[in-house]
Amino acid sequence: MVTVRRLLGVVAASAISVTAATSYTGTTPYAYPITWNPQLASSKLRLNDSIGPVADVFSAGRGFIRSSRAVYAFAANSLDYKISLRGFDEKSDAYYDARNKVHLRAAKRLLRLCEKNRGFYIKAGQSVASMHQVPKEFVSTLSVLQDKASFWSFKDLEVVFLEEFGKDVKELFEAFDEQPIAAASLAQVHRGFLKNGQEVAVKVQYPGLQKQFATDIATMAFLSKALAWIFPDYQFEWLVGEFEKNVVRELDFTQEADNADRTAKSFAHNRNVRIPRIFRELSTKRVLTMEFMEGCKIDDIKSLEKAGVDPKEVASLLAAIFAEMIFCHGFVHGDPHPGNLLVHRDPSRSGKHNFDIVILDHGLYRELGEKFRTNYCRLWRALILLDADEISETGRNLGAGQYARYLPVIFTGRAISSKSSFGQLMTPEEAKVLKEDVRRFTMGDVSEWLQGLDREFLTVLRTDNLVRSIAYRLGATRKTCLMAYVKNAVSGLSLGHPGSPDLYEQGLLAYTKAKFDYANLRIRLGK
């Protein structure tokens, strides 16, 4: 059996490697033409990042090995599901117990694959871990990938500066620390000083990602098609396309700079939100130079308390910031995990708002269409009031279809017919009925639901999951998060145009209407 799986892996990996090598056109925003540079020619590049036929052979070989691992993991998981669940009644307790065990084994295989292949596989694993609509075994197992990025030696990154600027690092900066201060799956960050003494953080993309990306995406596309063939109910091919588009955006640091500037402008009215300033003259598609900002990780409760900052106030502000992004700006940060959020204690301020939240890594954003934004605001107003008809209508508008009735559970913890009060969970009886209902779901149902949703909805779901998990870790109650969301949902419906909800941006009429509508809603809720 193992021999067959390995043989299949070798054959499929060969096909993937050839397809990637022959079909990739280099037309994505991060495809760079190779030009002769004497400094580059004499620099100590690693073999796989050098120029010429030898590098092409090395790259193809590396791609073959990575693809072989992926196909092997896929084959092992497919056989595990087929064999381990054979003969069970799909409605029995024994089936669910066996399925959960297979989920866990499959998730561990995927984790090992991501850890070995790194790079885009780490990024893909992180994406799956943030999708709470997939089995919990995958979420809990793959969530460790958030902290799995490892540092590269700076000698391996010097080539990026030479290719982008035609200059050595010492010519560009007054001082530059070769020891990185942070690392992610696609880049790492170094500390430096500009010629004028300004302290900066410099984000440098790892070299050689272009060819690696082509092979990895070809592998993922091949495996998603194979999955649909072996398990017809599992239609997840569209996820590869979404992942590819997101990574293309993240690999273009000029796009990240634009996103940061736009977000800074949108939050100019809020002194508790800080976005690093971008230094355009030292930024390109693969290098991003930005203002260095101090702070502790947002979920580091001990450091927050030591600095005199109330974690619950941090949670409240965090929920409000991202609710404003979603409901009012219509321009949403798609990766707000703890590593991208810092808390800075402001010694000039006292009281409960004595801190700022620093938002980092602006590479992954989603522009929400106006139709989606308005429908999503309406949905949230209906969720709070448990207006079943409005939930069904807006849910259908957002692509949820027949599954719209489950949206109240996903977002508020109450069933659509729940008698629980606002901010409270379902009664034990309601939870029992829902559990029996959900147990009839298959992965095909999950696939159908996710595939039908607007793509904007997927980004919002991911962002909501990440923000709420941090907020709850900081001690926030469910009601705190819900009130932040409904306040901004009501404001979002009153806006004259997408953007900041403050008085100067929207004008007196829209601002006053938002305040009145929110007060009216609180009265209806008895708050």
TrEMBL record:
Coiled coil: none annotated. The keyword Signal applies. SMART domains: S_TKc. Gene3D superfamilies: Transferase(Phosphotransferase) domain 1. Keywords: Signal. Residues 1-21 form the signal peptide. GO terms for molecular function: ATP binding; protein kinase activity. Pfam families: ABC1 (PF03109). It comes from the Eukaryota. InterPro entries: ABC1_dom (IPR004147), ADCK1_dom (IPR045307), Kinase-like_dom_sf (IPR011009), Mito_struct-func_regulator (IPR051130), Prot_kinase_dom (IPR000719). Residues 175-450 form the Protein kinase domain. Belongs to the protein kinase superfamily. ADCK protein kinase family. This is Protein kinase domain-containing protein. It comes from Physcomitrium patens (Spreading-leaved earth moss). The gene is LOC112290893.
